[in-house]
Amino acid sequence: MKQTGLTLIEVLIASVILFMTLGLVATVFQQSMGMQQRAIKHLAAAEQFPSLVSQIRFELEQQKTEGSIELNAQRYQWQATELKRAKELSSVDENGQDYLGNIGMLVLFNVTVTSQNGGTGFEFRQAIWLSSEV
C-alpha cells in the first residue's frame, strides 16, 4: 500500500523554513517603517527651514544673537556668533562730500540651530545689513 502525505520531519522542516521567511519579512518591514518615519521627520524639518531662516534673519536684523522659535509644534533654539564685520559705510554726494553720514555695515554670522524635540541640528551662515541711525 502506497502512503500519501507528509512525514512529521517534512512538516517540521517546512514549518522552520516558513517561520524563518516570515521573520525575515517582518524584520525588513519593521526597518522600512522606521526609515519612513525618519524620512518624514527630515522632510518636515526641510519644509520648515525657509521659514525658520527668515525668522532668524529678522531677529539678527534686530541685533539679537540668540533666541527660540516655535514652528508647527517644534521648538528650535538658535545662537549666532559674529564671524566678520565690514567697515561702516558712509554715503557721499556727487562732489564726494558726506551726504547722510554712516549708513550701516555688513555683518557675517554663523548660526547654530538645535531642535528641543530630539531632532537634528544644523548650521548656516547669514550676512546681515545693519543700518545706522540716520
Structural account:
The protein is of the alpha+beta class and 134 residues long. The protein has 1 helix and 5 strands, in the order αβββββ. The chain has one helix spanning 8-61; strands spanning 66-71, 74-85, 89-92, 98-115, 122-131. Strands 1, 2, 3, 4 and 5 form a 5-stranded antiparallel sheet that branches. A hairpin with a 6-residue loop joins β4 and β5 (122-131). The protein is rod-shaped, with a radius of gyration of 31 Å. The mean pLDDT is 85.
Short structural description:
The chain has one helix at 8-61, and strands at residues 66-71, 74-85, 89-92, 98-115, 122-131.
Question: What's the layout of helices and strands?
Answer:
Layout: H1 8-61, E1 66-71, E2 74-85, E3 89-92, E4 98-115, E5 122-131
Antiparallel strand pairs: 1-2, 2-4, 3-4, 4-5
Q: With helices defined by DSSP (H or I, 4 residues minimum), what is the helix count? A: 1
State the shape: rod-shaped
* Distance from first to last alpha carbon: 111 Å
Report the biggest beta sheet as strand number plus sense, adding barrel if it closes: 5 strands, antiparallel
Tally of strands = 5
Query: Would you tell me the structural class of the helices and strands?
Result: alpha+beta
SS strand fraction:
35-45%
Helix content: 40-55%
Q: Secondary-structure element order, as H and E?
A: HEEEEE
Give descriptors for this structure.
single chain, 134 residues, 1 helix, 40% helix, 37% strand
